[in-house]
Design a protein that fits this description.
Length: 418
């Protein structure tokens, strides 16, 4: 069976039944162990400053291992990995599934983030507290989870991501020989991406490097290749109308729009866009009062969608190498005076076009990869499609942003924003 068929048959069809039967009485509801592990995964993504591509792969790996460990205890669930066997029906207990799921997550995370193994050990101990880990069935569940994790790691070891630096020196380093046409000081082709010189929070100045330009070569979960969904595109840069719209938005920034920008920016050190969508999934899980079964299926499908979204988005970014707005506006408006955001604490000012800045922190004024296609949009469309297929598209997401909550612009917002 093709892996994309697995999602359709064993995923959505099974999950619909899981979700419709997952509502529990108010006094017995408690978040499943999957939610606890998602907090561990996303905190590790943020702590290690992982980029969105690496984050998407980490999420997909953890939740594919979790799904396969769980599938051993569900007769109707199909494995996505080979070499695993079903457990007897009498072992299909939430406690044993929780043990298996936790060991699967721990095994994969320990490989992905080796500097955080002590934290993962603590998380595992907490996840297993009160569970029958010393019983024969509990020991078998542990072994099942570890086997699922090891099998997944072996399957992903040669997927083209270069996690281990065996294709080129350095974890996740480019092995395809990408070279930027432009440099920070010389624009050869104004329609192509230009790396910038940036100074990080520690005061170290460096030239941007295209984040994982090889990612379109990573093996997807369901798609045949990274180029399978490559959109057509004429690399002519933004239109005049689009450029003027961006400049106008910059000049008209208010506290509400600044909060919206900061919320979705997902700068380095954040959970990244894929991780943010798993946080939305946590809200969906609590809203629907999910069972362990429902959470396993939801996060599995979400993780695989995030992986494939990262691969197809980066395939297009590499193929078209398109200019980002900051470089295009600075070039197109050079020698002109424009009204725009004037920097932290300055509001709207009239500035030379070549000094235009988006509303971002100075240490990360623009992402270190080409513009088209939008990674945020690709991740969001994929995730929203999965969640809507599983549970419908009605959910209330309300976030309250505190007064002075934007760290790089500490007087904003002047009052809490909802």
């Amino acid at each position: 069976m093709k892996r994309r068929d697995l999602l359709a048959r064993a995923g959505i069809s099974t999950a619909v039944g899981v979700f419709t039967s997952s509502v529990r009485a108010v006094d017995t509801y408690w978040p499943s162990v999957v939610i606890s592990w998602n907090a561990v995964v996303t905190s590790s993504i943020a702590a290690t400053f992982s980029g969105p591509t690496v984050a998407a792969r980490a999420l997909s790996m953890v939740y594919e291992a979790v799904y396969n460990a769980w599938a051993a205890y569900r007769p109707e669930a199909r494995f996505s990995l080979t070499g695993l066997r079903k457990r007897p029906l009498f072992e299909a207990q939430e406690s044993l599934k929780s043990i298996a799921v936790s060991h699967a997550a721990h095994t994969v995370l320990s490989d992905l983030f080796p500097t955080r193994v002590a934290l993962f050990n603590d998380a595992l101990s907490q996840a297993l507290a009160g569970l029958p880990v010393t019983s024969l069935e509990g020991i078998i569940a542990m072994q099942m989870g570890q086997l699922a994790g090891r099998t997944l790691l072996q399957m992903r070891a040669s997927d083209g991501s270069n996690q281990y630096g065996d294709l080129a020196p350095g974890a996740y380093a480019d092995w395809t020989g990408y070279q930027s046409v432009n440099s920070p000081g010389a624009v050869v082709d104004p329609m192509q991406w230009q790396p910038l010189i940036v100074t990080n929070a520690q005061g170290v100045t460096a030239t941007q490097k295209f984040l994982t330009p090889h990612w379109g070569q990573v093996r997807p979960f369901a798609l045949p290749s990274g180029s399978a969904l490559r959109p057509s595109f004429t690399n002519g840069g933004p239109t005049v109308a689009e450029m003027n719209e961006l400049i106008g938005l910059s000049a008209g920034l208010n506290d509400a729009s600044k909060v919206l920008v900061d919320f979705f920016a997902n700068n380095p050190g954040s959970v990244t866009p894929p991780g943010q969508w798993t946080k939305f999934a946590e809200i969906a899980s609590a809203t629907d009062r999910n069972s362990l079964d429902a959470d396993v299926v939801m996060f599995f499908m979400l993780g695989q969608a995030m992986l494939d979204a990262s691969i197809v988005a980066w395939d297009a970014k590499r193929a078209y190498n398109s200019v980002r707005p900051i470089s295009f506006i600075r070039s197109a408006c050079a020698g002109q005076l424009i009204q725009c955001w004037g920097g932290v604490g300055n509001g709207t000012l009239t500035l030379p076009g070549e000094d235009w800045m988006p509303y971002q922190r100075a240490t990360n004024p623009t992402p270190n990869f080409p513009e088209f296609v939008s990674g945020h949009s690709t991740f969001s469309a994929a995730a929203a499609t999965v969640l809507a297929a599983l549970r419908g598209n009605q959910i209330s997401l309300i976030f309250k942003f505190p007064e002075h909550g934007i760290r790089f612009d500490p007087t904003v917002p002047a009052a809490p924003v909802t």
